[in-house]
Design a protein that fits this description.
Chain lengths: 395, 354
């Protein structure tokens, strides 16, 4: 066997290495702040103080008020709460209301939207919903003309992600919001900002949105915690019922350590966000340029000027992503191919299909995502592994 | 040697991986996702993938899931449905072995620089000498022998295929899994076609994919109509289940199904037995050296069917076997495996019954 090259972790969009600040803050809470934050004694009050300090930080990060921040178990729960919680509030038994989302949304938005539209969320109180999935341009942006046509006075909810998780394209939230306010004045606008959070100034970018989903482990925090921002005066009906935590919007004992780790990661990130975005963007450009130069018949799936700085989605003609990922894994380069199904198999990317690619083209796609811990040596080492692997598969 | 093990999530392939590891190979596991529909048994369910993954973790080997659903639909499921529409009854597990596991997966293993592909089949590959012919034999456990379902393999494949548990009895396989603490140790064997839900059954599966046609049932001796069936597509040559005993009290078997005339012929075993089966032109494969026309062999027509001595007829474009005694009719589409006349564990070849 050949010597194993240094590992290149290029899957930051799937999970980020936790920041030391987050780990330290969590360890401190786990040791002393174990009490239930809903209690009334001193230890409980201390736990609650940690939760509320975190809430202030998260609110500041997205430009919301603390009371608008609902802590959840992560991005999926936040998106489900946004979609189902809003539709529960805004649907009736008779006239169907409109729901609109982009066809390139994360499954955490698409699946509850589709469940609501086929009546599978009736038990939660969701009434009749007519769903329109708006297509994407070949560059991976929501088709604004199609969005305009999909919106109407009966539209209750619109969901467009801040940046796409697979190809990294930053969506025109301002333009989307303009269309929504003009054509669907009664609609709430939800955005899944999970991928965008490490790189964009969210307080600015998601300013016009009513609902914003965040996940801690995509920005240097722990897994199992996230937040949904629900701007006042809007309401979401709970999907988890119980002790009535989070202003009756999300029951369940607070994950105090997780919440504290989430906030610590956000604070650390906020301090260096712009410099990091520039640094990661340069590394991404170097990686993409080197791969394109050394591997023929390779295509960037989205134009770099439109993507998050850490995203590099490449398609290799005449290569099966499953096989390439396995060779990369063997070579110490850890990447992925969008989303996996329940069994762990790579699913055909609904994002690439929505961008107009055929399934064969989509099967040659691999997502490399860089992040805070990525170094130049790492990306340059990965280039050779990618080139060798593709060459072997094409031999 | 670098070996890829196809792990279904069952005990056999779990122990196959463990055996290879003990033999000092560099082992990697792969589970195939074969069916996008909602089958609940066999190779494709998420719980089975989880079991395979957990076993790989316990053994300390990497594990991957390969999505072969499109190829499986095209090469196994669609032909399965089409065959039923034409009153043939293929064995989908054999077609999966032929078209997916020992074709596509084997090719993939080669591209990924694995020197061999292993599965948990109860069969044995013997290599007489370095680079010499590779022989395919029945598994050591006569009750679990699966040489029939891999009888279509040829030298090209046998050179690269390993069946690590072939020399073991099933009891020994389970005992080994238990010793290793593998979670699959006591898992029941899979029985059904993996893409058909056991609570739904073949009739509902096929019913959603083709139209059923009623057929008139004729008596083999009297040639008179003797009833009808609602769906000739669900009747299999050789079947007896679902048909009443004859007036003489004997069991009645389906002798033939004609999808064009929409007739089914039913008779006693003596009426419908056959002593000759023709094989689909071009379907005959040999594990190594071809048998000669007129050679004696032993034929088996189902996974655990009784082997029957026969003579092979191999004339240009027309192959058949002639049995030494009449056998129950075999459904067209079924595989017939040929074993050596003097070495009855040795697989010689296979063909598909016309």
């Amino acid at each position: 066997m050949t010597a194993r090259p240094a590992v290149a972790y290029l899957d930051h969009a799937a999970a980020t290495p936790p920041r030391p600040e987050a780990l330290e803050a969590m360890a401190a809470v786990e040791a002393d702040g174990f009490a239930n934050a809903s209690g009334s004694h001193r230890l409980a009050r201390e736990a609650r103080r940690a939760v509320e300090e975190a809430r202030d930080l998260v609110a500041g990060f997205v430009g919301a008020r603390p009371s608008e921040v609902v802590f959840t178990s992560g991005g999926t729960e936040s998106d489900n709460l946004a979609v189902l919680g809003t539709l529960t509030e805004r649907t009736g038994a008779l006239e169907p209301v409109g729901a609109v989302c982009s066809a390139i949304e994360h499954a955490a938005v698409l699946a509850p939207m589709r469940a609501a539209a086929r009546g599978a969320a009736r038990l939660l109180g969701v009434g009749a919903v007519k769903l329109t999935e708006v297509g994407a341009t070949p560059e991976g942006m929501i088709d604004l003309d199609a969005l305009a046509l999909a919106l109407g006075p009966d539209t209750a909810l619109v969901s467009v992600m801040t940046a796409n998780n697979e190809v990294g394209t930053v969506q025109p939230i301002d333009a989307v919001a303009g269309l929504v306010r003009a054509r669907a004045p009664r609609a709430l606008l939800h955005t899944d900002a999970v991928q965008a959070a490490p790189y964009l100034d969210l307080a600015e970018v998601v300013g016009p949105c009513d609902l914003i989903a965040l996940s801690a482990h995509k920005l240097g925090g722990p897994k199992g915690v996230g937040a949904l921002v629900v701007r006042a005066p809007h309401r979401v009906a709970p999907i988890l019922h119980g002790g009535g935590q989070e202003h009756e919007r999300r029951s369940g004992t607070h994950n105090v350590a997780g919440i504290v780790g989430f906030a610590a990661a956000l604070a650390a990130l906020d301090a260096e966000r712009e410099a990091e975005a520039a640094r990661v963007g340069r590394l991404r450009d170097a990686f993409a340029d080197a791969v394109l130069a050394s591997v023929p018949d390779t295509t960037e799936s989205a134009p770099r000027r439109a993507t998050l700085p850490g995203h590099c989605h490449l398609r290799f003609a005449r290569v099966e992503q499953e096989e390439l990922l396995m060779l990369l894994d063997r070579g110490g380069v850890y990447a992925s191919a969008g989303s996996a199904c329940a069994s762990g198999a790579v699913e055909p990317s609904h994002v690439l299909l929505a961008m107009g690619l055929d399934p064969l083209e989509a099967r040659g796609g691999v997502r490399f995502t860089l992040g805070r811990t990525t170094t130049e040596a790492e990306v340059l080492g990965a280039v050779g592994v990618v080139a060798d692997a593709v060459a072997r598969l094409r031999a | 040697m670098r070996v890829l093990v196809a792990m279904s999530g069952g005990v056999d392939s779990s122990v196959a991986a463990a055996c290879l590891l003990e033999q000092g190979h560099e082992v990697c596991g792969a589970t195939l996702k074969l069916w996008g529909g909602d089958g609940d048994s066999g190779c494709c369910s998420v719980a089975d993938v989880d079991d395979a993954r957990r076993v790989a973790q316990q053994l300390g080997i990497p594990h991957y899931v390969f999505d072969m659903t499109e190829a499986f639909s095209a090469a196994v499921v669609d032909p399965y449905v089409a065959a039923h529409a034409a009153a043939r009854t293929p064995n989908p597990c054999i077609e999966c072995n032929r078209r997916i596991k020992f074709d596509r997966l084997l090719d993939r293993a080669e591209r990924l620089s694995f020197e061999a592909l292993a599965t948990g089949h109860h069969a044995r590959v013997e290599s007489t000498s370095e680079g010499g012919p590779h022989r395919l034999r029945r598994g050591a456990d006569p009750d679990k022998d699966q040489s029939y379902v891999v009888s279509m393999l040829t030298q090209r494949q046998l050179a690269r295929v390993r069946f690590p548990i072939g020399p073991m009895t099933k009891a020994k396989v389970r005992a080994r899994a238990a010793e290793l603490g593998l979670r699959t140790a006591a898992k029941p064997d899979s029985q059904d076609v993996c893409f058909i839900r056991s609570d739904e059954g073949r009739a509902r599966f096929l019913g959603g994919r083709l139209s059923f046609h009623p057929a008139t049932v004729f008596d083999a001796t009297s040639k008179l109509p003797a009833g009808s069936v609602p769906a000739l597509e669900l009747v299999t040559v050789g079947q007896r289940k679902g048909f009443a005993h004859g007036p003489d009290g004997t069991r009645r078997y389906v002798g033939s199904v004609d999808p064009v005339a929409r007739t089914v012929v039913l008779g006693s075993v003596g009426d419908v037995a056959t002593d000759r089966l023709e094989l689909v032109a071009g379907s005959v494969t040999w594990t190594d050296e071809a048998l000669a026309d007129g050679a004696r062999a032993v034929a088996q027509t189902s996974a655990h069917g009784r082997p029957v001595a026969c003579t092979v007829e191999l004339r240009s474009g027309r192959s058949a076997v002639r049995f030494e005694r009449p056998v129950r009719p075999v459904a067209p589409g079924q595989t017939l495996a040929l074993y050596d006349a003097s070495d009855p564990d040795l697989v010689r070849g296979a063909g598909i019954v016309c």
